[in-house]
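Feature request, filed as a ticket because there's no other form

It would be nice if the structure record came with a short human-readable summary line next to the tokens. Right now we just get the raw output. Example of a typical job, pasted below so the devs can see what we mean:
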Amino acid sequence: MATAPQGQRPTGERRTAILGAAARLFAAHGYRGVTIDDLGRAVGTTGPALYRHFPGKEALLGEVLVDISERLASRGRELVTGADGPEEALEALLRGHIEFSLGEPDLITVHDRELVNLTDDDRRRVRRLQRGYVEEWVTVLVELRPGSPRADLRASVHAAFGLLNSTPHSRGPLSRGAMSALLLRMGSAALLAEDPAPKPS
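Raw output as currently delivered:
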């Protein structure tokens, strides 16, 4: 299989279009159900023409998942740095993740289903970026729930992600605005829940 020179990687709108089309197709048909020709047609070119930009379908899947992981991690850092205190930081993180989960559900599907199809290097990159993103949330929660063990806070963040990431597929008749407001309330309640008091001996 031909390998694309690094200098020919797509940039800007073209890159966004290719990654978006790949996410939609992978979400709809599964990684193994999509051919390079399908991907080419989705962006108005031929499958072989995509080899000028990506070595192959596996590399394109890696680019899709590394890209969203980088964007979430970078945005999380920006939101925490720009917030005036932990309460504002948590709300900003929640709003940012809700915007992602409602706006890009295909990426959630692809991540949940296709992580196993990444190369080892790409999988490690995604996991490393995700750990950094989670720790941004945990650091904020440490200030809001100072008596809670860090491991418990980390588990709370993962549970909240499960809540936020599952709802775009079951929104039903709710408008996006109504679902966003509901998720904000539920996410805040879940993350700020008081630790149970110890049972009397």
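Something like this underneath would help us a lot:
The mean pLDDT is 90.
The chain has nine helices and no strands.
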